[in-house]
Amino acid sequence: MEIASDAFIRYLATERGLSPAYQLSVRQSLDALAAWLTGRHLPLVEVGTEDLSAFLTDRKRDGLSAASLRIATVHLKVFFRWLARHGALEMDPAEPLMAATPDPALPETLHAKEIEKLLESIDTASTLGWRDRAILELFYSSGLRLSELCSLRLEMLDLDDGFLRITGKGNKTRIVRVGTAARETIADYLANQRPALVTRRTSSHLFLSIRGTPLSPDRVRQIVKHRAKFAGIEQNVYPHLLRHSFATHLLERGADLRVIQELLGHADISTTQIYTHVDRQHLKSIHKRFHPRG
Asked: Would residue 145 show up in a list of annotated catalytic residues for this protein?
């Protein structure tokens, strides 16, 4: 099992080009299976569909959520399909497995007025103030993931036309729109603030620390939380919350779901459809509040 797991992880890294985070997630699923098989003295080549079902049932009893159970099932299906295709197994025992359907968890969002409050509270009299305002404007304007924002370089930005070229999950490249307010803030940051942060060793990353180095994801999280706290927003604010707000506010104002999918970089429309639940909740609350018999 250990040899097969190592070979599969190498395949994910070298041939599929999947992220280290995804590789780690798969590794955790396979390690859990390996421990379960070892406890039952069951060799990998003898594993059947009933064994895998029993393993997943035990994982559920151990408290694994429906969402995590679904992910683990997908990992097993991909792993055993790969083994069967490479002749390590005569058949694929995971093929009949059905992934658990998780309850839809509605994403948290901020109201548009709270977004405005957050942005307007930042003092732009300082270099770091302009930088932080540009970061938050871009998160909300373009719906970027945290990793995407931290990896942004100057050559990926076209302020004249208002677009970014982003390489997201699975090394897929997409073009993202940058709104007018974000463009103006970023243009000022580039012209008047970023040069003050540049050192001889500075790379072409867009957002820099006071030492001239690229901002880490942890540092960006701290910046977002600090700015939200200063703005007096009691809700827990984090980068992905701004991404959720970006998508939800677009949908509330009539944007097509397929367009939102493209902007977010979702490979599957089903991932984007979670925002339709948020929109329905919004419509329900408006109806209840304003209809005479709501």
From this structure: yes
